[in-house]
Amino acid sequence: MTTAAPSASTGAIEVRSIDYVPESERHGKVWHQGPFWFCGNFQPYTVAIGFIGPAMGLSLGWTSLASALGILFGTFFMAFHASQGPWLGLPQMVQSRAQLGYRGVIVALGGTLFTYVGFNVIDTVIIDNGLNAVFGWGKPVIGLVITVVAAVLAIYGYDWLHRAFQVLFWISLPLWLVLTAAILFGGAGGQAAPASGGFTWVAFMVQFAVAASYNITYAPYVSDYSRYLPRRTKTSHIVWSVFCGASAAPLWLIPIGAWMATRLGVTDTLVGIHDAGENVFTGLGSVLTVVSVLVLVATMGLNAYSGMLTVVTAVDTLRPVRPTRSIRIVTVLVLAVVWALVGMLLIGDFSTAFTNVQLIMLYVLVPWTAVNLVDYFFVRRGHYAITHLFRKDGIYGMWAWRGLVSYLLGLAAMVPFVVLSFFTGPVAEAMGGVDIAFAVGLIVGGGVYLLLCRTLDVSSEEDVVVASERELVAS
Fold it and tell me: Global pTM?
């Protein structure tokens, strides 16, 4: 089994990464998960999702409804993944070796890494363009500063990320309350409801899919931030805490984004936040813009941290490694260079890139989340030989064909239904551009896995699971 030093952290920098967190190092409280994920979504990226519907001709009301339904749908799956962290004490993608195999998990790791880097590329574009437009600050300097701050947070790790979000939660909450009250009572400016803009199924489903993808894309790493909680943490408690926190922020901010797009006529998220705030009283817009950027940079640290865990997991599948602090630092720095360069140099049409990235992340992750949750809750019911997840000769095998077939069939089944700017599947085209690919991926991925596992003798794993638990206690 991959091991690290005997304590969770040495000095300020976290020591553990992909290795098991023993009970003696567990800390934190389950209710902290709610504010943590609330703050993770309480930032400009979330507001930007509200721009999509209006850009496609959807009204403020229909955009808000589609977003609310999508967020609730996506958060449902995300929240159940969070329960795996305390029980298994592992990063999410290490646990996925049980469904895909010790080496087979690398098939899904590519998709999750694309998600982390994709989020940070879009975040960089949002911050660079927004701060340049609002304050006139130079994009290269902005990009460099936010990349360094996010990378440092990721390097310092788990506890520092939690602390950062706790502080930013209490700073940003009153500012957004003031702006929201002003919007509701007409004190934030804006035009009357435009004559144009209404309802189309295509726009409604795109808005729904992008909103659903927002929290589904957290699924591969939500347990990364719950794995230090005590193992006795109740599933219902953590699911409810994560669900409420992760859904409340976008349910609040996406309609504000739609309001900015339809009433202020802005196309840049930070410009909209600044202008609306300044309409309330001088200085509010500037302060809210800066605080919003700080939250988004902290979220970039979140993505970089889980990106590091993904890369180290991938390397470990090919050649077992000791997850030292040196490896985490080098990995984070390499990821930082990649997202900074792509974000600052290669993104042209931001609106199109934003929608495409969100949808691709949804397509790639939906079959995986179906396979993972079906295995955890219906097939193995949370009983895993944790030590065998780090062994090539373990009971889960090198390539777990049931999980891999289910995941790949889920991906393939979605192709005729996808809707992207550069490709529309034949079935989606016949349906007038309505995107239901995510539903197909969930049903096929999860359904096929459940079917294939009817021949899996889970009872044969029981003795190994018991022996693994004894080994964990003794180590």
Answer: 0.89
